[in-house]
Amino acid sequence: xxxxxxxxxxxxxxxxxxxxxxxxxxxxxxxxxxxxxxxxxxxxxxxxxxxxxxxxxxxxxxxxxxxxxxxxxxxxxxxxxxxxxxxxxxxxxxxxxxxxxxxxxxxxxxxxxxxxxxxxxxxxxxxxxxxxxxxxxxxxxxxxxxxxxxxxxxxxxxxxxxxxxxxxxxxxxxxxxxxxxxxxxxxxxxxxxxxxxxxxxxxxxxxxxxxxxxxxxxxxxxxxxxxxxxxxxxxxxxxxxxxxxxxxxxxxxxxxxxxxxxxxxxxxxxxxxxxxxxxxxxxxxxxxxxxxxxxxxxxxxxxxxxxxxxxxxxxxxxxxxxxxxxxxxxxxxxxxxxxxxxxxxxxxxxxxxxxxxxxxxxxxxxxxxxxxxxxx
Amino acid sequence: xxxxxxxxxxxxxxxxxxxxxxxxxxxxxxxxxxxxxxxxxxxxxxxxxxxxxxxxxxxxxxxxxxxxxxxxxxxxxxxxxxxxxxxxxxxxxxxxxxxxxxxxxxxxxxxxxxxxxxxxxxxxxxxxxxxxxxxxxxxxxxxxxxxxxxxxxxxxxxxxxxxxxxxxxxxxxxxxxxxxxxxx
Lengths: 376, 184
What we know:
The complex is a heterodimer of chains A (376) and B (184).
Chain A: H1 3-7, H2 40-54, E1 64-70, E2 73-78, E3 81-85, E4 88-90, E5 97-98, E6 112-114, E7 129-133, H3 137-148, E8 153-156, E9 166-167, E10 170-171, H4 172-178, H5 192-197, H6 214-219, E11 223-225, E12 228-232, E13 235-238, H7 242-266, E14 291-293, E15 299-304, E16 308-309, E17 315-316, E18 328-329, E19 332-333, E20 338-340, H8 357-375
Parallel strand pairs in A: 1-17, 4-20, 6-15, 7-8, 7-15, 8-11
Antiparallel strand pairs in A: 1-2, 2-3, 5-16, 9-10, 12-13, 13-14, 18-19
Chain B: H1 10-21, E1 30-31, E2 34-39, E3 42-52, E4 55-67, H2 82-104, E5 109-119, H3 123-126, E6 138-147, H4 151-163, H5 166-172
Antiparallel strand pairs in B: 1-3, 2-3, 3-4, 5-6
C-alpha cells in the first residue's frame, strides 16, 4: 500500500497540497497544522489509515502481472493467484516510471545519472557539480536542496508552470480549489491532450510556505540553462530559447492570477484576502551558456527530473496509445468493463489530487454499476 | 462581435492539425534550395520544389535569391550576406506566427513591424581568434504591434509565435547538418 510514497521518492518530499486539502471520502484533516504539507511518511500513514477505516479488502504484497479480456470480463493474474472478474478499475497512477530522454545514452560514463527513483538525498551523490534536467516540481525541489548542500548546480529549463506558493495571503492551491479552476471538467477543456500532459507546477511544500520559482533558485546560486537539446562531441548543447520559456510561464501565471482576482471580486470575497499582487518577471541571466563539456569534471552527476510515465506492461488489453497512455473517456477505458481512476484530468482538473478522487470515483463507479446492472 | 480577419485561414490549419495527428507520414516535408556559384562570393540560390503531404509540390513560381557580401568585405554586393538570410527567415517566420496566432485568438491586427538584429563578431569567420564563434553571438527581435488587444495579450501572441516557430527552433537548438560532395 502507498508503495510509491514508501519506496520510490526522495527523502525530503512533501505533498504539494496543504493538509486541509488532503481529504478522502469521509475523512478530513483534523490535526494542528491545516496549512502544512504532509511528509511522504505522513502520506503513507494517511493511506494506511484510510484503508483500515474503510475496510477495503486490500491484498498487500501482491503484484498484478497480467490483465486480459476474456468472455464476459477479465482474467487477472497476480503473484498470488488468478482472479476472474466482470470489471476492472485501473488505479495504478500516471507516475510509475521515470521518463528519461534518449540523449541520456550519449552521456559519458564518468558522469553518474540518476532519476527521482534513484535519488534519495544530496549526500548520496558523488562529490562535485550536478546538472538537474527539468524545472517542474521535482526539478526545482531537487535543484534547490542540492544547491543548499553546497554544490554547484545547473538547472536545464524547458517549458514549465510557474506559481507562487501563496497568493494574496492564501495558499495558491486554495485559489485553484475555491475559484473553481480545478472543477473544470475534462469535456470542457479546450485542448485535453495538452491539459493531461501539463507539467507539475513549480511548487514545494515547506513549513515556511516559501515560493520556489526560478528567481528563488537564481538567488540561491543555481545556474539556469536552456532545454537540453543534444549531445555533440561530448558536450551538452542547450537551447537558446530560455527567454521565451520564461515569458510563456510568466504570462500564464499572470493570466491565472487575473482569473483569481476576477473571481474574488465577483464573489465579493476581496475583503477576506490580501490585495492583489504581481510578481517580478523571471530574471533572464546576463548570459546563458549553450554548451557544457560533460567530461570536464564540472558536473559529476545528472538528475533527470524529466517527468514520469505510467507502466502498463501488465495490461494485456489493447487500450494503450502510441504515446503509452490509456485510451479512455472520463475514466471509461476503450474496452467494456475496464475503468481508470487517478490520471491527469481524468474527469476534472483536480483528478490527480488526493481530494480529487472522490467525485471521480463516484461517477466512474456509477458507470460501472450501471453496466453490471444492465448485464444482470 | 466584428469578424477578425488577418488573412490567415486558421480553419485550414486546424483541419490540417487534426488530419495529420492520425497521419504522421503525410506531415513529413522536405524543403529544397539549389545554389550556383556566380563569381567571387556571389551566388544565386533557387527555390521552387518541395515535398510534402506524400507528394512532390511546387511553389506558384520560382524564386531566386542573390547572396554576396558588402563592399566593406571587398566584395561586389550583388545581394545580402548569407547570415542576413537567417534574419529574413526568423523575422518572416515570427511575423507569420503572430498573424496566425492572432487570427486563432480572435485578435484583429492593424500593423505588425519588427526589426531583427544579429550580433556577429567577424573575427570568427576570419580566423583571427579560434575562441570566437563563426555565427551570431546574440539575436534580438523587436516587435511593434498595433492590434485590438491588451499589452499582455500582445506579449502572449509574440511568445506563442516563438513557441511554434520553425526558424526560431532551428536557430536556438542544434540541428544535424550533413554536407557532402556528390560523385562527379
